[in-house]
Structure formats: structure tokens, C-alpha cells
């Protein structure tokens, strides 16, 4: 996922002078069925587009709301404090969209919950980095060193792949997006790994050789993202499961309002704020909905063996 937050929940709404989306009700046929359908569509268009996020107070969302209001598009940003909340809210039609997660997290939710949420646009990839308070390069990390890694399944598997790519460990069968610490081949690895709570990875720096730290926690720990000893390649095929996305329900993914809002999110000012808010770590992604949905299908299939 992109960034976690520990801020209290809040609700914010773009304020509009008037809605500009209309469905031409004056041109409806006199048939009651058509009139009712038109009324329902108009009612939906008059409602704000509700978007679930984690971290609504960031500059990117402030700018996004401002630009939406300037274009006459009403949005309501719903801020969640836990990653576990926005997908059920979207499935239950409490939201129209959410934007907080990468493809792997979405795939795991769909499989576990039996849902069919779909990605409709890409936002960015946030490289996952290896940091140390003692060593200045991967080569300096000694044989038998200890590496702290996040213990949640999504970040754990990605952390292990980063360590393997850095030449510090070897994983059974080359590793996958679902590898665990049980897949680390001890006799072929230079270091050991210790899973800890993601928030503890930065705090553990003084007691381990190095830590894999999600960029969510770098600023609070006073760590500069540029000091990473190693990080994964955001442009590689291996990074596809970690592309952050806009997600919608499959049955209304083609709502034209969504496409208009996504274009506003691509505004250079908003994109600059996104990158700045990540400490400069975010790599903007622009894959199409079709590509993203293909990646999602692959990851969901892999997760089921």
C-alpha cells in the first residue's frame, strides 16, 4: 500500500457552486420506465463521488479537492485510519471509489472476501528500502547479520524479495509475492530475518544490522529516503503487484465522473504533491485499466495456487 497514517478519522468535502453534470431529463420519453431510469441516473449524478483514502489531510488531496471544485465536480474524501476499512466500505456501497492500496492488497481482499473490486487507474509505486544506522552499503553488512522486516504478509513477502535481490538471502523457488520467512534458505543466505510490526522496523535500527522500512515511517523516524542501502526497482515487472491504484466496484467502474476525477488527479500540481508527500520516493505509474486488471487477475490466480 502507499502510505499509512495515524491521524484521527475525518471527513472533508469539496464545495461547489453548482453541479454541471446533467442527463438531459427534459428530453426523456413519456414512458414511465425511461423516466424512472433517467431520474435515478440524475439523482446519482447529483450525489458527490465519495472516495475512501488513508491520509486525507495530505497536500495532494487538498489540491485534488480544489481542482475538482473548480471543474464543478463534487467529491467527498472519507479518511480511514486502518487499511482494513476502505475495501469493505467500497464493497458495501458506502463509497464510490477508494485510493489507498496496491494491486497485491486488492487481490488478497478480493480472494478472501469473495468480492470483485477492480483497479481503474494507476497512481504510483513506492519503492521499499533497506536502511541501516551502522552500515553504509549492502556489502558492509556482515555474514550472520540480522535484518528486521515488516511482519504483515504483504510487506513481509516484498521485503524478502528486496533482500534476495540485494544478495542478502535466498528464497525457495526464487520467491514470490507470497513468500514468508519459512521460505528463506538459511544455508544459502548471508543474514537472518526477524519479522516485527511494521512500525517497529525503524525503532529496531539500533539493535539490528539493518531494517526494511516502509516509507510511511521514514519521516517520523528522521530517516532520509535517499539513505536507503538498497530498494526495489519500481519500473520492473516484479513491481507490478505493488502499483497503487484507484479501485471501484466492477458494476460501476465505467462511471464517467470517475474518469474525469482521475484526470484531475494527474494534474502536475497534484502529482508533485504526491511525490513530495512520499519524501520523494513515489514513482508515478500510468498503466491502463486493462493492464491493471490483467495484473490483478494474475496475482489473484497466484494467491490461490
TrEMBL record:
InterPro entries: Lipoprotein_NlpA (IPR004872), TAT_signal (IPR006311). GO terms for cellular component: membrane. Keywords: Lipoprotein, Membrane, Palmitate, Signal. Residues 1-27 form the signal peptide. PROSITE patterns: PROKAR_LIPOPROTEIN (PS51257), TAT (PS51318). SUPFAM superfamilies: Periplasmic binding protein-like II. It is found in: Membrane. The keyword Membrane applies. It is a lipid-anchor. Its main location: membrane. The keyword Protein biosynthesis does not apply. It comes from the Bacteria. PANTHER family: D-METHIONINE-BINDING LIPOPROTEIN METQ, LIPOPROTEIN. Belongs to the NlpA lipoprotein family. This is Methionine ABC transporter substrate-binding protein. The lineage of its organism: Bacteria, Bacillati, Actinomycetota, Actinomycetes, Micrococcales.
Amino acid at each position: 500500500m502507499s502510505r499509512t497514517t495515524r491521524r484521527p478519522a475525518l471527513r472533508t468535502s469539496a464545495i461547489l457552486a453548482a453541479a454541471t453534470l446533467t442527463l438531459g431529463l427534459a428530453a426523456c420519453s413519456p414512458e414511465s420506465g425511461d423516466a424512472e431510469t433517467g431520474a435515478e441516473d440524475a439523482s446519482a449524478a447529483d450525489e458527490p463521488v465519495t472516495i475512501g483514502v488513508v491520509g486525507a489531510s495530505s497536500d495532494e488531496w487538498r489540491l485534488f479537492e480544489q481542482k475538482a471544485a473548480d471543474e464543478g465536480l463534487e467529491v467527498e474524501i472519507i479518511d480511514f485510519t486502518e487499511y482494513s476499512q476502505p475495501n469493505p466500505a467500497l464493497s458495501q456501497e458506502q463509497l464510490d471509489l477508494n485510493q489507498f492500496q496496491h494491486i497485491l492488497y486488492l487481490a488478497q481482499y478480493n480472494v478472501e472476501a469473495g468480492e470483485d473490486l477492480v483497479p481503474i487507474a494507476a497512481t504510483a509505486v513506492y519503492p521499499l528500502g533497506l536502511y541501516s544506522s551502522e552500515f553504509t552499503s549492502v556489502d558492509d553488512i556482515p555474514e550472520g547479520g540480522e535484518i528486521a522486516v515488516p511482519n504483515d504478509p504483504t510487506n513481509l513477502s516484498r521485503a524478502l524479495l528486496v533482500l534476495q535481490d540485494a544478495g542478502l538471502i535466498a528464497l525457495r523457488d526464487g520467491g514470490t509475492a507470497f513468500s514468508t520467512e519459512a521460505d528463506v534458505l538459511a544455508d544459502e543466505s548471508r543474514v537472518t530475518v526477524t519479522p516485527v510490526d511494521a512500525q517497529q522496523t525503524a525503532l529496531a535500527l539500533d539493535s539490528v544490522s539493518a531494517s526494511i522500512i516502509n516509507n510511511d515511517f521514514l519521516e517520523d523516524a528522521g530517516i532520509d529516503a535517499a539513505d536507503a542501502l538498497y530498494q526495489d526497482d519500481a519500473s520492473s515487472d516484479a513491481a507490478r503487484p505493488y502499483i497503487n491504484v484507484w479501485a471501484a466496484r466492477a458494476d460501476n467502474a465505467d462511471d464517467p465522473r470517475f474518469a474525469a476525477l482521475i484526470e484531475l488527479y494527474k494534474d502536475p500540481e497534484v502529482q508533485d504533491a504526491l511525490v513530495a508527500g512520499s519524501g520523494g520516493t513515489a514513482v508515478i505509474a500510468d498503466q491502463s485499466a486493462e493492464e491493471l486488471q490483467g495484473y490483478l487477475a494474475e496475482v489473484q490466480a497466484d494467491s490461490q495456487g
